[in-house]
Amino acid sequence: MIMALIYGYGYRYYYDPTYILVLIGVVISLIASAKVKSTFARYNKRQSASGMTGAQAAERLLYAAGIQGVGVTHIAGNLTDNYNPSTGMVSLSDSVYNNSSIAALGVAAHEIGHAIQHDEGYGPLKLRSTMVPVVNFGSSLSWILIVAGLVFGRYQFLLNLGILMFCLVVAFHLITLPVEFDASRRAIELLDRSGILYGDELKGSKKVLKAAGFTYVAGALTAILQLLRLIILFGGRDRD
Ligand SMILES: [Zn+2]
Question: Taking ligand 1, which is a single-atom ion, which protein residues have CB atoms under 5 Å away?
Fold first, then answer.
């Protein structure tokens, strides 16, 4: 609908050369998503010698870290694993919860890495959590402001406000990077120290987490490209 409105105001998406920025973002994201799926599938075929499932490993790592009040639960879907700081729940997906592959254990430990970050009051996670409510509507609000700015005859103040809103979205994507990389670093350390994985197994697990990390890099890049496009299309030029 918003696209149609903008189109109506003369911003022809079909011939808009900045659309290439959006396409680059889409391609990078598709590559990242394909890469994490194929890497997970590859190391999902390899069972760990410890034979622990993702859920068992998660419980054990929480216990070892002395973290209380965090639960481990099952969530439907694929690669939907997450830790929710507000509910204190580690949710593990179909292919992780009941699975003892080195890929599954890597993902499970990564989510425990987030729980430990939360427990320790890790700065970037705190900042990220505070930003969630803003960013949830920031992206749509940004477009609403931009459309409003165009409706009122390229009202630059609203356009700039819209662009500023989108800067917050970009900032959110950027602050996600240290949170994710740190959780993966912790995961490998936890798996190693606890003996849940060892030797060669850790390398495979690391590759899965690295591929997962790349999807966040792709997300950040996509957001930056979108911001760049907004600046090119609607940035602070005066009306002529
Ligand atoms: Zn994560």
Answer: 180, 183
